[in-house]
Amino acid sequence: MFQHPNSRIKVGIENMKALVIGIDGASWNIIEKLKGMQIFSKKFIKQNAAYGVLESTIPPWSIPAWNAVFSGVKPKKMRLYSFIKRQGNSLTPVLRELDDQVYIWDLVSMHDGGVLVVNAPCVSRAISVNGYFVAGFLADRSRLVFPSRLSKILNDYGYIVDVTDLHPLTDEEYLEVCLRATLQKTAFFLELSRRAKWRLGVIVYTHSDRIQHRFLKTRFSFVEKYYEVLDTCIARLLDRVGLDNTVVFMISDHGFKIPKATFSMNTWLISRGYLSINSISAKLRVVRIVEHTLSNSYVLLTAARKTAKILRLTLHRNIQRARREPTARMNLLRGAYMPSEDGTIYIINIADKVRRVLADRIAKEIKKSLPEIKVHRVAEIYGAALNRAPDLILESDSLALSVDPALPLRLRTMRATHAREGVFMAMGSQRVVNLGFKGYAKVYDIAPTILYVLGLPIPSYMDGHTLTKIFADNFIKHNKESLIKITYEKARIKSKIYRALVSKVLSRT
């Protein structure tokens, strides 16, 4: 059972460590409903943490939110806005861009600090660091760990990267896999922590996001069950690291909400003449409506999953085919297109001058005819329109956004989705953390705050600010913030060189 340290313990700033516990999609509106928890309880949080709302990026999705958390910079500087990027007149997934950033583990490593990272969700491969690194769900499975000898330990654990890798069918199986993966990641982090000396520890739990997408609206008891296990896992982590000379940050990349309905944005764009595609057959429309109805009826979906299990079939292949089919059949010609449910809209195959006019016209019409949807221009958020960035970004408190142009405008949905208000907590000795403080922060404030805790210089390129109000006066008095002037481009070059040197040295040993 986790016990908070005695507040009289003297803190040595030069020996401070930071542990970041990421909980994908953690949201105060969910945490406040949980009962019987040790860590996730109002009493514990108020007595043992500085806490508050952590505002995510726009859009509030894992990319670019996790990248902003661990880099301390805004999407514009990272050139990351979504899982998709514009490349000429086409759209492609971001991969190389994920790793072409300077993350907090790079900075700590370059200052000779030990690093231990498990399940980093914002990279496409394991990164060479001064310590151990395990990449997360976006990574190439053949390049998951650094150093490579960790692969054997991972295999011994039967390590599950993501629930989608296993294609479980029933709700019970889905929950079981998420619980098992969460316990594995905790055990693996604890195992590595015994093998390595680290100043920065990072562990991210992404299965909370999967559980909330699937069960938040229909089976909250499953969400509670997941948090019960996560609660015990975090208590084990806190017991192991202690809080004498460690500040523990618990953060989420975004929050969650329960939409009232699904709105098919591409269908709306087509109906208004803003998107031109090949015609969609009546047969495909019927199939897609039936599939959507099935996936949003709890009784029918449960029966289908159990039937599929009995017949030893998997729905995953059919679901993936169904997801690809509208895009494959659409044969996009030109116009405004929303490629992902994150709400980003790209205008393709249109001259730049016309593109800007069209974006303005669409934005005005959405504001006028769709009051439930908030529309952002990239220039309004990031200060300038950029070639890779989407032209518009949509948000809604009451609607989930669908990309399928074969669906009607509005349909019922069971799937919960992302919200901008996430969670942050900072725990530590009373001589370090201003326990009970309640405030507001942004995702890119986390990285400079971690550097501050470790007594390392904060790069001038970071867009975030040190959250000094979450710390005790005595700690602030003895730990002056230091800055280093450097551009993000120069930091990128230094980071690439350092990673290459670490890999080269390790290959020789």
Q: Would you kindly provide a written description of the structure presented here, covering whatever features stand out?
A:
Helix content is 41%, strand content 19%. The chain has 2 domains: 15-257 and 418-508, Alkaline Phosphatase, subunit A, CATH 3.40.720.10; 261-415, no CATH class. The longest helix is centred in the middle third of the chain and has 25 residues, at 171-195. The model is unreliable at 1-12 and 312-330 (pLDDT under 50). Strands 7-6-5-8-1-9-20-2-21 form a 9-stranded mixed beta sheet, sandwiched between helices. By secondary structure, the protein is of the alpha/beta class.
Total strands: 23
If helices are DSSP runs of H or I spanning 4 or more residues, what is the number of helices? 19
What is the structural class? alpha/beta
The N- to C-terminal Cα distance equals: 41 Å
- Average pLDDT reading: 87
- CATH architecture tag of the largest domain: 3-Layer(aba) Sandwich
Looking at the structure, what is the overall shape?
globular
